Amino acid sequence: MQLRPDQLAAHLAKGLRSVYTVHSDEVLLAQEAADAIRAAARAAGCGERQVHTVTGAHFDWSGLIGASHSMSLFAERQLVEIRIPSGKPGKDGSDALQRYCSALSDDVVTLVMLPRLDRTQLSSGWFGALDAVGVTLKIDTIERAALPQWIAQRLAAQGQRVQGGEAGQKALAFFADQVEGNLLAAHQEIAKLGLLHGRADRGNELSFEQIEAAVLSVARYDVFKLGEAVLAGQVARTLRMLDGLQAEGEAPVLVHYTLAGDILALKRVKDALAAGRPMPMALRENRVWGAKERLFERVLPVLTERALAELVEAASVCDGLVKGLKDPQWPDDPRAGLQRLALMVCERVSAAPRGGRTREPRLPLALPA
Fold it and tell me: What is the pLDDT of residues 152-171, one digit of tens each?
């Protein structure tokens, strides 16, 4: 049984199922969902709790199964938590989880905590067994575009709101920029505003100045999200993410790998379309999924063969830069080269067709001294 996060509270109010499987990379949201399940389990008489963390290939699965079927000494029912940080229980674990699901005890509520799972893991026998006997909760990452609304909802939950109109939107956008990629810190900053400025029912509205003064810059950037910002043509966000990744010590080689991978994938999909492949098939063959899939569909009609050839050449030059090879028409600093490559892609994908022709802006090959 699949549930959305916003359906969990109503479901728990009606009663508990035997197994709950939560998979997500959003630590805060996964923790909040798990806390809600734990609270419901306590209310249902689960006065004892066992926690089993699966680490390495030598985890004692037989011990877990035996413990879950033993009678509780101190409570009528017990909560058993199985945490698999890698998301990969292995062959022994897969067999054990399937056996576990086939012999559930009415006295046990099981909570399984997993990271975000890929398609292979979602189609595995062990995950299918968990899903078949209980409730599965997939908690997606809060994307940047949805972050201001998420912040506004969290503020509303503690009785606060921003000013109306453009001023409020500006305040939420600033807040989102400060906490992007770090929901745990965002939660703390929201709580801080609650302590500092009280509830809106007392006539208070949070101004931009109050948010600017209170909210710290705690953003954490994911190098793989950088590609989404670049393909969306978001220049300011791209530059902010590049600066943040540099401050966090991210290796230039990995940043280049992400940018070059997207450029080469665009070229392969474009070639497949030219050969008569339908867009969905070309994207699947090149392993383009999710948010990237939508971005590819939007930018591929904009990109010409010449534009893609220039981007592939630029990615090749930048590959040399991050490996210590200089180019007279490019900056010596690899990070400056990565910035230039990212901006080239941003400008290309922003070159919308006009009058049946595609505008191709020429970018200078050398940065000013």
Answer: 999 999 889 999 899 999 99
Q: Tens digits of per-residue pLDDT, 13-67?
A: 999 999 999 999 999 999 999 999 999 999 999 888 889 999 877 788 887 777 6
| Single pTM value for the model | 0.70
CA distance 345 to 265: 13
Q: Hey, what CATH topology would domain 223-358 get? A: Zinc Finger, Delta Prime; domain 3 (1.20.272)
Q: What's the token pair of residue 208?
A: 């931009």
Where does the chain have alpha helices with state H?
A: 8-14, 27-43, 61-68, 90-102, 119-122, 125-133, 147-157, 165-179, 183-197, 208-214, 223-231, 235-247, 252-274, 279-285, 290-299, 305-322, 334-349
Domain boundary assignment for the chain? 2-138, 144-214, 223-358
- Residue 91 CB burial class (10 angstroms; 0-12, 13-18, ≥19): exposed
Question: What CATH architecture is 144-214?
Answer: Orthogonal Bundle (1.10)
Q: 2-138 — its CATH code? A: 3.40.50.300
DSSP string covering 263-294: HHHHHHHHHHHHTT--HHHHHHHTT--HHHHH
Task: Look at residue 107 in the predicted model and tell me its pLDDT.
Answer: 86
Amino acid of residue 16: L
pLDDT band at 363 (very low <50, low <70, confident <90, very high): very low
Residues in CB range of 353: below 8 A, 6 or more apart: 301, 302, 359
